[in-house]
Amino acid sequence: MKTFAKLLVSILLWSSTVAAKCIPYTEADNRIGDQTCVTGTVVKVAQSKSGTFFLNFCEKYRNCPFTVVVFPSSLKDVGDVRALEGKTIEIFGKITSWRGHAEIVLKDARQLKGEFAKLPPVPKEYDVERKGKFSSTAPKPSKDKAPPQ
Question: What are phi and psi of 120, to 5 degrees?
């Protein structure tokens, strides 16, 4: 039984050591298909017309070897990713390739580790249905009722 306990402790220590090592974003394209941690400083957070957010690690994103993608449907589980601009992050996930560039899709805040892992929630006025646009929080007048006199 002691041998089993020692083996279990060894495996746990080894796996936590492996998981704790992050590769720089510049090496992510060499690890396509791997489930790993990538680290780097988010230079810019950009948003597409469809409401998808991109965490860019280079000034010229088209020449950058790695990016993080956050789809609008995941924002409620991730938080306000705009807070990551200028911050050094660690993100865990499967590195995939899209149009020749490595990326990790951020679906859950638990994929982020380190100092900036806890993001503020997405603002209440953020409207996923309107593809990432911010909407007014003022209530719309009812069409069925006459205005009060």
Answer: -65, 155
What CATH homologous superfamily does 23-118 map to? Answer: Nucleic acid-binding proteins (2.40.50.140)
Please state which of the ranges 8-17, 122-131, 134-143 shows the lowest mean pLDDT.
8-17
Please tell me the pTM assigned to this model. Answer: 0.71
Every domain of the chain and the residues it spans: 23-118
In a 13 Å sphere around the CA of 81, the CA atoms on its Cβ side amount to 32
111: closest CA among 66, 78, 83? 78
Using alpha carbons, select from 130, 133, 136, 132 the residue that is nearest to residue 72: 132
| Average pLDDT in the chain | 80
Q: Give the residues across from 104 on adjacent strands.
A: 68
